[in-house]
Structure to design on (157 residues):
């Protein structure tokens, strides 16, 4: 599969990416645990069918010390026993925040309440922002049909 265009080489797209990357850096530097951040990115990317981001974030998570077992179970996190309660709350919020069109009320009070029990206000702001940013990256890559599989951890550092 080939990308529809060289989005990464386009000048306007480069400006868009700089802004998305700046927002992503603010989240990355927040107190939201890095492992939770990667799990959320992976789960949203799976839901959106973004192979490029799924490839990137599973490889980045492995390089950062995440276990293969946990990565294998992200898609089935509800049935898995390897995730903490805060991680489960973040994954649940990521799912509802990614599937906004599937729910008439958006993110439910129950899901928000579970997340709010585990994260302070700054971490919740980071989590909301992370969900928004990864969904933007996913949509760019899915619309452009960006091929997956060749990402090398740290290549955009």
């Amino acid at each position: 599969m080939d990308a529809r265009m060289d989005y990464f080489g386009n000048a306007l797209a480069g400006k868009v990416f700089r802004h998305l990357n700046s927002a992503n850096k603010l989240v990355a530097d927040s107190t939201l645990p890095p492992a939770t951040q990667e799990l959320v990115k992976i789960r949203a990317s799976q839901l959106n069918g973004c192979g490029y981001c799924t490839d990137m974030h599973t490889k980045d998570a492995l390089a950062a010390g995440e276990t293969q077992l946990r990565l294998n179970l992200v898609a089935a996190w509800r049935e898995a026993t390897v995730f903490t309660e805060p991680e489960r709350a973040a994954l649940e919020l990521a799912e509802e925040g990614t599937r906004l069109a599937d729910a008439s009320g958006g993110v439910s009070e129950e899901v928000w309440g579970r997340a709010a029990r585990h994260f302070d206000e700054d971490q919740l702001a980071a989590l909301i922002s992370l969900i928004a940013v990864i969904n933007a990256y996913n949509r760019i890559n899915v619309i452009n049909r960006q091929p997956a599989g060749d990402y090398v951890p740290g290549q955009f550092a």
About this structure: The chain has seven helices and no strands. Helices lie at 11-28, 34-48, 51-63, 68-72, 85-98, 109-118, 121-144. The radius of gyration is 15 Å. The chain has a mean pLDDT of 96.
